[in-house]
């Protein structure tokens, strides 16, 4: 069968890498893809929000299965468009992807269906929002309602910082229309984990546990990014925490969405905050995490394609996931300056040498080809992912890969996975 993957980051490279191993698959296209993906698939120069172009491509090339990576096309309704044309597509429909596209919707859903989450209120006017912050004090968390590429959350340490964030968002200066509504919520302490599950709208099949590292510097210092590294399994997700996440978070969210007439099919990602065995939900995403997808798929033993097809068809019965016992760790190598401004176009050295290392895959994210060389072209450039019998071994493997690669200004965290070792 022919598969089309939509997206061009590290997550999509991991999806292409895994799908390429399926005996069911004869040809893979990826739109827009990237130079790493191009080694396994045909890159198609279409943007992820060009729904007309993507639909025309899938129809003309008789694509058997389309897999959507990022949230933007989901929130624009790509799944609805493809289904209306009779095409099989993996991802949440528009009325379900709202669980990520609107934080106010997501919080209201959690409240209505008793998914444990931080206390919050939603505001569209500055005055009551500023007063709410003054009343509750800091630390406090201010979130833009809409999609903001992972940057719409301000964890404010002071009342002034929180009030400034509210003004920036509601004025439209910070995130445009995405900031026209804000969620202000209680600050939660604890350790975060990413809990992902496949669902057909009824059955829920959890993936292995994972943990992301959002701040840009070691020791969780500096501004939040899309994710500087991830590992799986995450020991903070004990069997008891797993059970709670399944019953109190996933089950209630999936049933709640169905009760709202928004049946959720695809992969549902809950960002969890865990403290003393208690589980609270920070957010839902309607897609695989990036970079969590990279270590997760390196650990998945089962063929991914039948799972994706079963979700898309709305019937997961008979599907089981098998995992490698080994751990996997992904270290993101980023452009110096990210998540702020950064320079592009520096040639990346050492990729050939890294490719020779066993149990290591270098997933491309923000790379481009220039004059026959691979150069950095985005904030997160590579996801160097190692596998090993323990988290410690997988960390060593990933950093062995990282040390062979360099370019001008490269930045990466040196402590990915350390929290797992501390447990
Ligand atoms: P979100 O996009 O909602 O997951 O927020 C991004 C990041 O902000 C999370 O991964 C947390 O590190 C942090 N965060 C979000 N909400 C809270 C909260 N209520 N308390 C503490 N930290 C939070
Ligand atoms: N790594 C966090 C995310 O994908 O949202």
Q: How would the blueprint of this fold be written?
A:
Layout: E1 2-7, H1 10-19, E2 27-32, E3 42-43, H2 51-60, E4 65-68, H3 71-76, H4 78-84, E5 89-90, H5 94-101, H6 103-112, E6 120-123, H7 126-136, E7 140-144, E8 153-156, H8 159-170, E9 182-186, E10 191-199, E11 204-206, E12 211-212, E13 215-217, E14 221-224, E15 229-232, H9 239-259, E16 266-275, E17 278-285, H10 293-299, H11 304-313, E18 327-334, H12 351-355, E19 360-364, E20 367-370, E21 373-376, E22 380-388, H13 391-404, H14 418-422
The chain binds adenosine monophosphate (AMP) and glycine.
The site of glycine has 8 residues, from loops.
Residue share in helices?
A: 25-40%
Mean pLDDT: 97
Q: What is the count of distinct domains?
A: 4
The name of the CATH topology of the largest domain is D-amino Acid Aminotransferase, Chain A, domain 1
- What is the rounded Rg? 21 Å
Distance between the termini: 44 Å
CATH-assigned homologous superfamily of the largest domain? ATP-grasp fold, B domain
How many DSSP E strands? 22
Shape: globular
Total DSSP helices? 14
Low-pLDDT stretches are: none
- Across the major sheet, the strand order is 3-2-1-4-5
CATH architectural label of the largest domain = 2-Layer Sandwich
CATH class of the largest domain: Alpha Beta
Structural category is alpha+beta
Small-molecule binders here are:
adenosine monophosphate, glycine
**Largest β-sheet summary:** 5 strands, parallel
